[in-house]
Each structure stands twice: as structure tokens, then as C-alpha cells.
Amino acid sequence: MHATVPQKHTMLLAFFAPELRAWRGQMPLPVVFWGYGVGTSIVLAILHATALDAGQLLFQQALILISAAYTIWILVAIWRCAAKARALWGVLARWLTVTWGLNTAFVLLFLQIELLARYVRG
Q1: 48 falls in which pLDDT band (50, 70, 90)?
Q2: Where are the beta strands (DSSP E) in 1-120?
Q3: What's the rounded mean pLDDT across residues 74-97?
Q4: What does the longest C-alpha to C-alpha distance in the chain come to?
Q5: In Å, how far are 23, 76, 89, 104, 112 from 80, measured between CA atoms?
Q6: Could you give the CA distance from residue 84 to residue 100 in angstroms, rounded to a whole number?
Q7: Whole-angstrom Cα distance, residue 41 to residue 108?
Q8: Hey, which of 41, 52, 82, 122 would disulfide with 93, CB 3.0 to 4.6 Å?
Q9: What's the CA gap between 15 and 35, in Å, rounded?
Q10: CA-to-CA distance for 93 and 81, rounded, in angstroms?
Q11: pLDDT interval class at 5 (50, 70, 90)
Q12: Which residues of 26-64 are buried (b: 16+ CB within 10 A; e: fewer)?
């Protein structure tokens, strides 16, 4: 017996097919590193700066959580895609990914601490 996949599930898989290929390490490293990595990080930083400037605490909290989940995803995707790149670019991308991950972890930690302090102050 063959189980059928619901149409909504199929559409969702089709929509996120590039991201799933990146997660599996099946996309070119430059696309994942520059497009998904650097490009999306810039968009998230701009959104967070805008929310910070507007004093939107709940949006800031959501962006911290989204950024943390995104960082895990992009670090794994870059690491896996680097395996198929030229040796120099793969090693460089992996080292940059390690430093990127550490930097992001500290930035998100300090943003969360500041946000908690603002919640406490009211």
C-alpha cells in the first residue's frame, strides 16, 4: 500500500525545495554562502534594527528566535555545501562559518539580555 502525501504538504516541500537542497549540501557553496548566508543575515539585521528603533519588543523577541533557528540552519547548510566546493573555498567557508556562528551566538545572547532588562524595567 502506498501512502499519499497531502497536497498542502507537497506544496510546502516544493516551496522549500531549494532550502532542503541547501540543508542536504546539494547546492553550490557561493549561492548558499552569499545568498542565503550573507544576504539573509543582512535582511534580519535590518529588521532587528528597525524593530529596536521602533521599540517593538515582541517583534525583537521573535527576530531573536528566528535568527537563532536560521543561524543553525545556515551553519549546517554551509558546512555541508562546503564539502563539495574546491578545497580552498570549502575550508575558508567552514572557518568563516565557525566564527560567524560564534559571533551570532554572542550577539543574540546580548540582544536577549538587553531585551529581558527592558521587559523588567517596563
Answers
A1: very high
A2: none
A3: 96
A4: 60
A5: 7, 6, 13, 19, 29
A6: 20
A7: 13
A8: 82
A9: 17
A10: 9
A11: low
A12: ebebeebbeebbeeebeebeebbeebbeeeeeeebbebb
Shortest CA distance to 111 belongs to which of 43, 54, 65, 46? 65
Half-sphere exposure of 3 (CA within 13 A, CB side): 4
The residue whose grid cell reads 539585521 is: 45
Among candidate residues 88, 80, 3, the one with its CA nearest the CA of residue 37: 80
For residues 52 and 61, give the distance between their C-alpha atoms in angstroms, rounded to a whole number.
10
Instruction: Give yes or no for residue 1 having a pLDDT over 60.
Output: no
Q: pLDDT averaged over the chain? A: 93
Distance CA 40, CA 31 (A): 12
Contact by Cβ (8 Å): 118, 58:
no
Q: At what angle do helices 57-82 and 40-54 cross, to 10 degrees?
A: 170
Report pTM: 0.86
Q: Are 111 and 60 in contact (CB under 8 A)?
A: yes
